[in-house]
Amino acid sequence: MNLAGADGFLADEERKWILGNAVAKGAGAHVINYFTIYQPMKAEIEAMIAEKPKFTQEAGRSLILEAILAASTDNDFHAAERDAIYRIRRALGMNDALMQQLEQAAVNEISHQRQVLTLMYPEDFQNYLFVLAVVGSGDSLCSTTAVRVCQQYPKEGKCSIETIVGMADMVEQLLDYYRQANKVLPNKVVFYRDGVDDGQFGKVIAHEIPAIRQAFDRIYGKKSNHPLLTFIVVKKRHNTRFFNYNSSTKQFSNMSIGTVIDTTIVHPYQNNFYLNSHNAFQGVNHSSLYHVLFDDIGFTADELHLLTYHLCFTDPRSSAAEAIPSVVHQADIAAMKARDLFYDDERSSATSVGGRSQALRNPTLNDLDYEILDVHENLKNRPVFG
């Protein structure tokens, strides 16, 4: 495919097609003029075409169109345009100013990995599969991520439990992904775990953290080479709400973005805190609750709050902040999509006896089987866009 014209960049007909579609897709006039006069991102576009020579002409045009829409970050874009540009830049693997700020903020170590796990589970633990997704970052900024999905189901006549059986295998694969992307392994791993009730903390500490250590054994070898680990549980479903109160006007309002509550109403001796990381409509603001179950890294309170807050701004789909770290949300979406793609009613019912398993008084990990679900190689190490 040759998209070059007399000027070595775009032929006139290609230019007209791209500009027409840029207008049709809502690009502002200043973007069109910017492209027409300066031809931004010329080298980047040519490099992308060279890397993907098998694109059809239509796909090549679309790629250039996306690059044009991504080329400007002028402040007079309205929110929809900015979000579209943000998604395109992330899809093309480009870091923006926010990513550069994050690189200098939080913890200034050169080799980190944030890994996130979320669990999607049905109401009937005895009859259905668990679908789990683990999302791991490909760099120290969480600007790119990869996902691994697993289905977990009870053996015949047994009962499901919420502990993750395939944790070690999925963490091992994501550490290998990080190594391939950076040519080095992380020296610190921050793990955010979703979907854990207070009564399950003991099982997570007894089974899942050792499983992560087992993955370290496989990848790093001797324990002296292991990375430091911090394990945090994210709770979105709780009934605590916070408001600001203006005594002069006697009006309530949402908490300011970035507010942390870590005294008075939190647990007297456990390390937990509430963080409000997003703007919401009046009355529906819902701060997330974080429990630090294990902290080998030794974060100060401010460092951990700031890291968690910054991770709420790394969603590849939007430049707005989220209520939880964006990688947790990506894991939610990945688990939900995997459930839609891979769920098998026949296999699920086949694991029960008489339509329902007999609940065990003390089920163990030996009562469960799991299977890591493979996706296409081109999608395995890509961010989850929903």
Number of helices: 12
Structural class: alpha+beta
Provide the β-strand percentage band. Answer: 15-25%
Strand order of the largest sheet: 8-9-10-5-4-1-2-3-11
Largest sheet: 9 strands, mixed
Quaternary structure:
single chain
Distance between the termini: 31 Å
Round the mean pLDDT to the nearest integer and report it: 70
CATH class of the largest domain equals: Alpha Beta
Output the CATH topology of the largest domain.
Nucleotidyltransferase, domain 5
Description:
The chain has 386 residues and is α+β, with helices and mostly antiparallel strands. It folds into two domains: 12-94, no CATH class; 112-380, Ribonuclease H-like superfamily/Ribonuclease H (Nucleotidyltransferase, domain 5), CATH 3.30.420.10. The chain is built from twelve helices and eleven strands. The protein has helices at residues 12-24, 29-38, 42-51, 57-70, 79-91, 97-104, 167-182, 201-220, 301-311, 326-342, 345-350, 377-380; strands at residues 112-120, 130-137, 145-154, 188-194, 228-235, 243-246, 251-254, 259-261, 272-276, 288-295, 368-373. Helix 1 crosses helix 4 and helix 4 packs across helix 5 (79-91). The two termini are 31 Å apart.
